[in-house]
Design goal:
376 residues; alpha+beta; 6-stranded mixed sheet; 5-stranded antiparallel sheet; 36% helix; globular; binds adenosine-5'-diphosphate; binds magnesium ion
Length: 376
């Protein structure tokens, strides 16, 4: 029998300074519900849109409540301190055994929070600093995928400063490589924010200006006529892929409204594919997971061309949507890992990864007498 004080204390980070703040609240609520109370004590830690860190009186608190009336706290970067300390200096700090960052997009999924957790010496769910940063940058991810011979949609990367300085030349370069329509998207955002399907030259400049508001780099891509296939990957050194699912947006593409505001988009699980196609997406998803230095989990999204049936990797999400109806957990459920077991496994993987890192030496032992020379 597990006694209550033997339970692992799981800090669930949610909210954050990101366009996907609200999505994070929904994901975090379902992660907290999925944490088996016999094994875990959930400590919800909310980050407001301004960046304040707050904790509620108890795990039962509603998440928006934590954000509005919680206690101001901070996470210390000192691994010998309690992880969470109150800003008013009252009360003891809170120890955490492991952290589950359930924040999508900027300052959550991009390596920044992962860096703080590394400094604090805390195990955490999902990709580390490097994998998170790569996964968030669609341009760098594609370049690494190309090296690994994983097919990606043809693209051009435009730096915002280049576009602002030389729009004529950029337009020329784009039109030399692509015919309309093209997709224009910020390199480092999710939820289809700042993204435009550009049908003609007249729409190009407004699309690049819009994307420029959201990122330093912009991707211009060939518009695919394709089905959208998604696979979930789970693991560290031996990642496994789930069965495949398909997204069928009811709008022109899977934009913000189709994702969060309107009903009508269909999630098909499993996707109707030939067994050989399923094998191929699974193999590519695992290869991408390795190529991009990921750990824990990722959802890997593909385009399957309607004509020709060729597969292209579109993007990876290192903290995918995690509501009970989201693709990532749904695909695992359909592959034989129910929600609660999935959360267990992710926490196990976080602890495993932490132990693996802890085996690494970070300091060198100086030979006798060397100290004096270094001091001088
Ligand atoms: N090159 C493309 N061709 C066709 N559709 C695209 C292309 N790029 C993006 N889309 C559409 O836009 C959606 C969001 O694009 P994506 O690159 O996945 O960005 P996000 O990170 O915001 O999800 C995709 O699911 C798809 O419907
Ligand atoms: Mg996407």
């Amino acid at each position: 029998m597990t006694t209550p004080n033997k339970r692992l204390r799981v800090g669930v980070l949610f909210g954050g300074r990101s366009g996907e703040h609200e999505v994070s609240l929904a994901s975090a609520a379902s992660v907290i519900r999925g944490l088996d109370p016999d094994k875990y004590e959930a400590i919800p830690i909310g980050i407001t849109k301004e960046g304040h860190w707050l904790i509620g009186a108890g795990a039962q608190k509603m998440l928006p409540e934590v954000l509005h009336h919680g206690q101001r706290v901070m996470m210390t970067a000192d691994p010998t301190d309690a992880a969470i300390v109150r800003l008013d200096g009252h009360g003891a700090g809170q120890r955490l055994d492991v952290v589950f960052p359930v924040m999508h997009g900027t300052f959550g999924e991009d390596g920044t929070i992962q860096g703080l957790l590394d400094l604090a010496g805390l195990p955490f769910v999902g990709a580390g600093v490097l994998g998170s940063a790569i996964g968030m940058d669609k341009d760098v991810a594609k370049r690494l995928l190309q090296v690994a011979k994983i097919p990606v949609v043809p693209w051009i990367t435009v730096h915002r400063h280049e576009w602002e300085r030389n729009p004529k030349e950029i337009q020329k370069a784009i039109e030399k490589k692509f015919k309309y329509p093209v997709f224009v998207k910020p390199a480092t955002l999710g939820s289809s924010v700042g993204m435009t399907k550009v049908h003609s030259r007249a729409e190009l400049a407004p699309a690049l200006n819009l994307a420029s508001e959201f990122a330093l780099k912009i991707l211009v891509e060939k518009a695919m006529v394709a089905r959208e296939i998604e696979v979930s990957v789970l693991g560290n050194n031996d990642p496994r892929a789930s069965i495949a699912g398909e997204i069928v947006p009811h709008r022109e593409f899977y934009d913000y409204a189709a994702k969060y505001l309107e009903e009508g988009t269909q999630l098909l699980i499993p996707a109707k594919l030939k067994p050989a196609q399923v094998k191929e997406v699974q193999a590519l998803a695992v290869a991408a997971f390795r190529a991009l230095e990921l750990s824990g989990m990722a959802r890997v999204d593909f385009f399957l061309e309607k004509r020709g049936g060729k597969l292209f990797l579109n993007e990876v999400n290192t903290i995918p949507g995690f509501t009970s109806i989201s693709m990532y957990p749904k695909l695992w459920e359909a592959s034989g890992i129910p929600f609660r077991q999935l959360i267990d496994r992710l926490i196990e993987l976080a602890l495993e990864q932490h132990h693996e890192k802890a085996r690494t030496k970070y300091q060198i032992e100086l030979p006798e007498g060397a100290g004096g020379a270094l001091e001088g």
